[in-house]
Design brief:
Elements: E1 5-14, H1 22-39, E2 49-54, E3 57-66, E4 72-80, H2 81-84, H3 93-101, E5 113-117, E6 120-129, H4 134-147, E7 155-158, E8 170-173, E9 177-184, E10 187-188, E11 192-193, E12 196-197, E13 201-202, E14 214-215, H5 222-228, H6 236-254, E15 259-260, H7 264-271, E16 278-283, H8 293-304, E17 307-310, E18 316-324, H9 332-356, H10 361-364, E19 372-374, E20 378-379, H11 380-397, H12 401-413, H13 421-425, H14 432-440, H15 445-453, H16 468-487, H17 501-514, H18 521-529, H19 540-561, H20 566-573, H21 583-594, H22 599-614, H23 631-652, H24 656-663, H25 667-676, H26 684-701
Antiparallel strand pairs: 1-3, 1-9, 2-3, 4-6, 5-6, 7-8, 9-10, 11-12, 13-14, 15-17, 16-18, 17-18, 19-20
Length: 712
């Protein structure tokens, strides 16, 4: 650096920012500022960045920022020597014109550098570019940071001053901006943004700031002055940590081993809503605890941003925590106000719960016929019928009559809670309320659990359904969605997947594999597709063949994420295995085989055999010992007669690893065969016999996986 380095602070003071986007906005604003200043040579790559974000400000503090960037040498290609200089070495008009555009003249010609550029020699003009001043560089960086903010929705507003037409000139930003601070050490950097001129004044807490405005002494005093004078914890992370600390302390104060509900998204959102957090303990009437706790927790979190308190058994208590943005000496009014606000919400939940239980789930199934599922696939009632048939078929394949009865009943009732008042108000409770209402109707716990669990797994890492009936209904529900959507051409594209088909496919994969279900993928898809035969325009090919490709592609991605190589995954999935529950064992066998010394040679030989057989459509697996002439082919045939039956027996017993390891004994006879035998002999019977030998070998080697995929 060529100038004194000081720390830099930049702050935009704005109206309340969207809370769910605040963290990203703060990180993006600070990150782009830093990257731009580093790119211009005004900051060092090692400069320490601190991002600040509160409901009414975005700010960044950056260490070791220079007043001016260092000058840098610039080498500019002008033109080929043959174009720039004539036969006598004098500059051509073209060269003089180019130099003039760069602010130079003929006196610069002797100093031009010659260097090869590709196949021709070119002329280069070397000069020194003045480093940018901080004011210039920060102006550019600030504009870039504002332009690149991940703003969920831009708003336009008129500027009241500092513009060409006050009251008429407008700018666009996430929220109206009212202040700009830019301090390099204790010096204001003269930059502008959003119609604002930089200064050193900002504003603290709307109600509790000790002074207004807060006049910042220097860049380093920002966080401390904001806290002491402005009553604001400017750092998002520091504010979040403080809220978590206060929540834990308040729970201890309540006693009874209570803990606040753990919800990172809620904690982030509340952190984005307050500048000076103050956690208060509130309560509600115990009678509301008769309502399922999921309902009460959801309404407190989603509607009021409260933190419910749970006891040692993870049951909801009648206490909850509020994160207030003010800290009055007497907080009773704040506590009382929040208790009054939550009471009608809880009363609504209790009313919905009481009303819903007046009708059984079974009586609501008919109403699903009036609820549109998809304009091409009919109503929810028609969908339920399809899911019922698919579920019954799966259960029957598993050979359990009791399971079939439970799964069919659960599938019939699984969507009935969609027409209840509670789920109408809180769609997130679908399935959960179905379970409560099923138990109220006297249904078995297995059926009730299946009604709730048929949406699982809902996301990566989510639990699978807890009982087999739930597994069957969840499989049926996801297969119905996948087959239906693929059949009408409603496929995911790019980032768009409105029907969560990728998630459904991964759910099907997880259930088939983790429960090791003896179900063939193609048969499942065919049976599901049969339920759509009355749908106009339904394409069974897309619903089976393309969908199977889609599911196997999702499986391949999942296996690679778990550490398998692309070659290993290709080897296992290329034969399109139907029992997905076998895939982990097949993959383990391939990975163990790949580690053997003989693996590379056998994989290469397998690939070579495959290429030979592709060019020999007349071949079949018949081998006549009478036609075996060369010692190498006799030796290979003898080795196969001993090794292949043993490998097949292990394969049939499900020991895929040992099966492949047994085949590794064929390496030497295979190598010798290719070294000493002409496969495409002129004599037809010899050629066909040798091709038959290779075909038998190829089939034996590829029962577990396509080993040729392991070849480099």
């Amino acid at each position: 650096m060529t100038s004194v380095q000081k720390n830099l602070l930049v702050e935009l003071f704005v109206e309340e920012l969207p809370p769910k986007a605040l963290r990203k906005l703060g990180d993006a604003f600070a990150g782009v500022l830093r990257d731009q200043l580093v790119a211009q040579g005004l900051a060092e790559p090692a400069s320490v960045l601190t991002a600040y974000a509160s409901p009414r400000r975005l700010a960044a503090h950056l260490t070791h920022v220079a007043e001016r960037a260092a000058d840098r040498a610039v080498s500019q290609k002008l033109m080929p020597v043959a174009v720039g200089l004539d036969a006598s070495g004098q500059p051509t008009p073209a060269l003089l014109k180019r130099l003039g555009a760069l602010g130079a003249d003929a006196s610069a010609v002797p100093g031009l550098k010659r260097a090869m550029d590709g196949k021709a020699e070119a002329l280069f003009y070397e000069s020194t570019a003045k480093g940018a001043t901080l004011a210039e560089g920060l102006q550019k960086a600030l504009a870039e940071a504002i332009a690149k903010l991940p703003i969920p929705k831009v708003m336009s507003y008129q500027l009241e001053s500092g513009s060409e037409l006050p009251g008429w000139s407008s700018v666009s930003f996430v929220r109206p901006a009212h202040g700009l601070v830019a301090l390099h050490g204790d010096t204001v950097v003269p930059v502008e943004a959003l119609g604002l001129h930089a200064g050193r004044e900002t504003h603290g807490h709307r109600f509790e700031a000790a002074v207004d405005p807060v006049v910042l002494r220097d860049a380093n005093s920002y966080a401390l002055q904001m806290q002491d004078e402005g009553a604001v914890i400017a750092s998002f992370e520091a504010r979040r940590t403080e809220i978590a600390r206060q929540l834990a302390a308040a729970a201890v104060q309540v006693g009874g081993a209570t803990v606040p509900i753990q919800d990172d998204a809620l904690l982030d959102e509340v952190t984005a809503l307050v500048e000076r957090p103050n956690v208060l303990v509130c309560s509600f009437e115990r009678e509301f605890l008769e309502v399922p706790q999921e309902c009460l927790i959801l309404t407190m979190k989603a509607n009021q941003k409260y933190f419910p308190l749970l006891d040692a058994s993870n049951r909801l208590t009648n206490k909850f925590l509020v994160v207030s943005n003010i800290s009055p000496e007497d907080a009773s009014a704040v506590v009382g106000g929040n208790e009054r606000v939550v009471r009608p919400r809880l009363a609504d939940a209790k009313f919905f719960f009481d009303q819903d239980r007046k009708k059984s789930l079974a009586s609501r199934v008919e109403s699903l016929g009036k609820v549109v599922y998809h304009n091409k696939l009919g109503t929810q009632g028609e969908r339920v019928e399809r899911v019922m048939h698919i579920a019954r078929g799966i259960a029957e394949k598993l050979g359990d009559a009791t399971l079939a009865a439970h799964a069919t009943q659960a599938a019939q009732l699984a969507k009935a809670d969609l027409v209840t008042d509670m789920v109408g108000e809180f769609p997130e409770l679908q399935g959960t309320m179905g379970r409560y209402y099923a138990l109220h109707d006297g249904l078995s716990a297995e059926v009730a659990d299946a009604i709730e669990d048929h949406y699982k797994p809902r996301f990566a890492g989510d639990d699978l359904p807890r009982h087999m009936a739930g597994i069957v209904v969840a499989l049926a529900d996801k297969l119905e969605t996948l087959v239906g959507m693929f059949g009408i051409g409603n496929l995911p594209t790019g980032d768009r997947d409105p029907f969560a088909l990728r998630r459904h496919a991964l759910g099907v994969i997880r259930m088939l594999i983790e429960k090791d279900l003896p179900l063939g993928l193609d048969a499942l898809l065919q049976d599901a597709a049969a339920q759509f035969k009355e749908i106009d325009g339904f394409d069974s090919g897309k619903a089976t063949v393309e969908l199977q490709d889609f599911i196997l592609d999702r499986l391949a991605g999942s296996l690679r994420e778990q550490g398998a190589s692309a070659q290993e995954v290709d080897a296992v999935l290329a034969p399109r295995p139907q029992r997905l529950g076998e895939v982990p064992k097949l993959l383990a066998a391939v990975r163990a085989f790949a580690a053997l010394p003989a693996a590379a040679a056998l994989a290469a030989a397998n690939k070579r055999i495959g290429n030979i057989l592709k060019k020999a459509p007349e071949a079949d697996a018949h081998v006549s010992e009478l036609l075996l002439q060369e010692p190498a082919e006799k030796a290979l045939h003898a080795a196969m007669a001993e090794v292949v039956p043993a490998a097949n027996a292990l394969f049939d017993a499900g020991d895929y690893t040992a099966s492949l390891q047994t085949l590794a004994a064929l390496r030497e006879p295979v190598d010798a065969f290719f070294d000493g035998v002409m496969v495409n002999a002129e004599q037809a019977d010899l050629r066909l016999n040798r091709l038959g030998l290779l075909m038998s070998l190829h089939a034996a080697m590829n029962r577990v996986a396509q080993l040729e995929r392991l070849a480099a």
